[in-house]
Amino acid sequence: MAAFSVALVMIGVVVLTLDNDAELERTGVPVGVVACGVILIGFASVVGGRFWVARLVGVDGATVVRSFHRRLTGRLAWAEVPALTAFGGFLLVGGAAWIYGIGLTVSITGLTSAAPTRASLQRDQERLDAAGTGLDLVESLGGYR
User: Is residue 17 one of the residues assigned to a domain?
Assistant: First the structure.
């Protein structure tokens, strides 16, 4: 998770550097339209990261681990989209660092919600228990309780 967050912050440094450079050409694209687009894509990212990712399934330990990793990777991918879109929007309008700030905020929120926490692992374990798998999620993932 930290690597993804650091990458987004590094893109932010590029945005600030370019925004302070007077040589950026302003385009005719309305900043408000781009900002609204970033907000809409951010909303779609939040929804997508929750509902359009692989489900946790478990017949055996290997299947649980594969589905857990697929779901985590999907959530991380959805979380990255707003910041990358905002970076493109920033370049499209020829500068306006606050546009990247919108995407960065949504992306960091998405990364935070994608992170496996004790509570989320407990919810996943409860789902596995309800399905009658008899598997221990944390143990399957290589952790210890």
Answer: no
pLDDT value, residue 27: 86
Beta carbons of 80 and 106 less than 8 angstroms apart: no
Which token pair is 109?
């929120």
pLDDT at 26: 81
Vertex 119: Cα angle to 117 and 126 (nearest 5): 120
User: Any idea of the CA torsion for 41, 42, 47, 51, to the nearest 10 degrees?
Assistant: 80
Q: What is the Cα–Cα distance from 45 to 110, expressed in whole angstroms?
A: 8
For 20, the 3-state DSSP assignment is coil
In this prediction, the residues of the chain whose per-residue pLDDT falls under 70 are: 22, 144-145
With a CB cutoff of 8 Å and minimum separation 6, the contacts of 71 are: 53, 54, 55, 56
Which residue range is the domain that position 64 belongs to?
A: 27-115
* Whole-model pTM over 0.85: yes
What is the structure's pLDDT at 144? 63
